[in-house]
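Sample intake sheet
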Amino acid sequence: MTQAAETPEDAPITATEPSATISDSENGGHRNQHGHCGNCGAELRGPHCHACGQPTKGLVRHFSSIVGDFFDSVFDLDSRLLRTMWPLFSRPGFLSREYFDGHRVRFVSPVRLFVFLIILAFFLAQISFDWSDAQVMSDGGMYAKADTVEEVERLRDEALEGIEESREASKDVPGVSGSLAGAEAAIRAGAAQRIRELEGDETEPGEEGKKPDKQPRIGFGKNAWDKETNPIAISWLPDSANAFLNDRAERMQQNIGRIQDDPNLLKDGIFGLLPQVLFVMLPLFAVMLKIAYFFKKRLYMEHLIVALHSHAFLALSIILLLVMSWLRGQVDPEGFIDSVLGWVELLLWLWMPLYLLLMQK
């Protein structure tokens, strides 16, 4: 009697076939005929050696594959991203609870989610704003760059026209008329002050045709700050500290002048500093949560996870607000779509503090 053929259950289990599928590129660009680890010689059974932990993938392979692995490692951009966004925006604290309960694979990790959304938010914000036409407020206010009386009068009339349009549009809203009246008085007073400055400069002997000095001045005491005639001199500070403060004041005055010439310098400085500030404030925010919920016996890392999800939500909200602002710029400002987008923006602004309040609970 012949022996019965072995059933699939009785067949020996070998790992030679899976290991044989490992390609040259996955093995660091070197052919491995026997499917063994190049480091310790153990038989390979997957993308990593089970004995020493060395990955089968090396750097000697196609560059596109390396770039793909980099973005996958940093951002983990796959179907989980879409599965994560809606609960992040609509369910305060849900992602943090899921993470604490051990359900971590189905959603993007908190660190990757935070980094991805923050980078995207800062990028969109920087390309969305152009401050080149902005009026930088200084001693002359909105008239600081006006060099003639006619230009001051033109700016004043344009501002008053805007005030009048706002008054007509909000005539049925209580309390608005008083605010508009105050704004109108400030506009007229600023224009009158600038006209007096211009006329005074023009009537000084030997100064005909000279443009007024638009160099910004920093107030210190009763008079404007000056490094020679009116420096910062705090009696209880050493001379080196006072010298440092005067150097900072001089640099501040120069920077204000540069910003008046190119307001985008201020934008670049703000967005260049914000990421550093945010990465410093994030762990401090977790410390504040630890102190506020001291008796809850929660670990610091749990509070840090909550902080990461909170800031990721804020970044997502900023992205949505930027998108809403861009869409409003593409439609008729008096149309129905613009009105709907305006209400959506308002709801987003209201949802942000409410979300954070619910998140901490």
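Comment: Residues 16-61 form one domain. Residues 1-33, 134-139, 202-213 have pLDDT under 50 and may be disordered.
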